[in-house]
Specification:
The protein is of the alpha/beta class. It has one domain: Rossmann fold (3-Layer(aba) Sandwich), CATH 3.40.50. The chain has 15 helices and 12 strands. The strands form 2 sheets. The chain has an 8-stranded mixed β-sheet with strand order 6-7-8-3-9-10-12-11, sandwiched between helices. β1 and β2 form a beta hairpin. α7 packs across α8 and α9 runs parallel beside α10. It starts with a helix and ends in a 6-residue tail after the last helix. 33% of the residues are buried. Adenosine-5'-triphosphate binds next to β2 and α5.
């Protein structure tokens, strides 16, 4: 397939709408084109050193250490039954120390399940999760589990349901301090809670109140204080701001960014849409129906999205400029446009350095050829 044909196909995909039905691609042209690559080349998923050097790119991982490694993770529910759900279907990614990885995708695509799998709330159906080099499934003794639980904390999706209504804020926040025996005495315990309340923008007096006496934003701050109480290395924030007003969302995001700067905490930040993770993420992963369909540096995902689903997510963000907003076209993602066959080996492939897309070998070659390295 010539460069011109590739461009034409790209334009066809670009202008395609759901009403048009599946895109008609001349298979013979693609087969002919693909035949110039060996099987090994077609099935490779990462760029060669030469390809990376040609792109003149500083590797994202340079000077960074992996905190989390997720390898071919699968989490199915109701296995073997009629209502089997592949909530996570073979996903792999790393999270580096001190970074924020944003995870986005529509409701039900498996974001919370991914977060819950990382803190070992489930026994994985398949694959592995390593935390600081240790396979989390191998952590079995009570003592080791306790140590592991202290290093990883989760801030939950619903600020109304995640705080025990019968406990005072003091005891909610101090729960982890008690479990891990971090306080020397009662006074030290109280002082730690007061300090945490101040860190999240609340005050000492709030310690004696019950959760129902707080607004949603304040409750979410209590949830953050509770997570911070055990001085974790890693926090999974599961849609921590979705239930909040826009003005409060910004405050909670700022608070988390400050904590990251000051304490070097690593974050997995889960959200529905890309506008929420834009300012907080170093890299972004996009999920669709249990699969990770795109993963890359935040600016690459915004300025140069490659997967059609990512493009549709981006097109859903309202634009601040009224003129552009009036002409904004919402794209609908139709998975049929890929026209995959049973023979296609679909995998997350590195299209440009550190920019991965879930695609077939054919799509991989086309995406690589057309990649705009000057998108910035
Ligand atoms: N314990 C469970 N048992 C059975 N199915 C489950 C369970 N937990 C999640 N699921 C299913 O797995 C899929 C992924 O759910 P998950 O909660 O991870 O989605 P999500 O991306 O977090 O969605 P949302 O944005 O609505 O929070 C859904 O289809 C859900 O119904
Ligand atoms: Mg969820």
């Amino acid at each position: 397939m010539s460069e011109k044909d590739v461009k034409n196909l790209d334009e066809t995909i670009e202008n395609h709408t759901i009403e048009d039905g599946p895109i008609q691609v001349d298979e013979s042209e693609i087969k002919e084109d693909a035949s110039q690559y060996s099987d090994a080349e077609l099935n490779k998923t990462t760029l060669t050193a030469e390809e990376k050097a040609a792109a003149g790119y500083k590797p994202y991982a340079e000077g960074k250490t992996k905190l989390i490694e997720v390898k071919n993770l699968k989490q199915y529910f109701n296995v073997g039954k009629k209502n089997e759900v592949k909530a996570i279907d073979d996903i792999s990614f790393d999270i580096y120390k001190g970074e924020t990885l944003g995870l986005v995708g529509e409701s039900g695509c498996g974001k919370s399940t991914t977060g819950r799998s990382l803190i070992k709330l489930y026994n994985a159906t398949g694959g592995e999760v390593y935390f600081d080099g240790t396979d989390i499934q191998s952590i079995k003794s009570k003592k080791d589990l306790l140590k592991f639980n202290r290093r990883m904390q989760m801030i939950f999706q619903d600020p109304y349901a995640s705080l025990n209504p019968r406990l005072k804020v003091m005891d909610i926040i101090a729960e982890g301090i008690d479990i891990h025996k971090l306080a020397k005495n009662k006074q030290d315990r109280a002082n730690r809670v007061y300090e945490l309340l101040e860190t999240v923008g609340l005050n000492k007096e709030h310690a004696n109140r019950y959760p129902h006496e707080f607004s949603g934003g304040q409750r979410q701050r209590i949830g953050i204080a509770r997570a911070l109480a055990v001085e974790p290395d890693f926090i999974i924030a599961d849609e921590p701001i979705s239930a909040l007003d826009v003005s409060i969302q910004a405050q909670v995001v700022n608070l988390m960014q400050r904590l990251q700067r000051e304490r070097g905490i690593t974050f997995l930040f889960i959200a529905h849409d890309l506008s929420m993770v834009k300012y907080i993420s170093d890299r972004i992963g996009v999920m669709y129906f249990g699969k990770l369909v795109e993963l890359g540096p935040a600016d690459a995902i915004y300025a140069n999205p490659l997967h059609e689903y990512t493009k549709s997510l981006l097109s859903a963000i309202p634009l601040p400029d009224p003129e552009s907003e009036r002409t904004r076209v919402r794209k609908t993602y139709n998975p049929d446009i890929h026209a995959y066959t049973a023979d296609d080996v679909l995998e997350l492939r590195e299209v440009a350095p550190d920019h991965f897309v879930y695609c077939s070998p054919k799509e991989y070659e086309i995406l690589k050829q057309n990649y705009n390295h000057d998108y910035k």
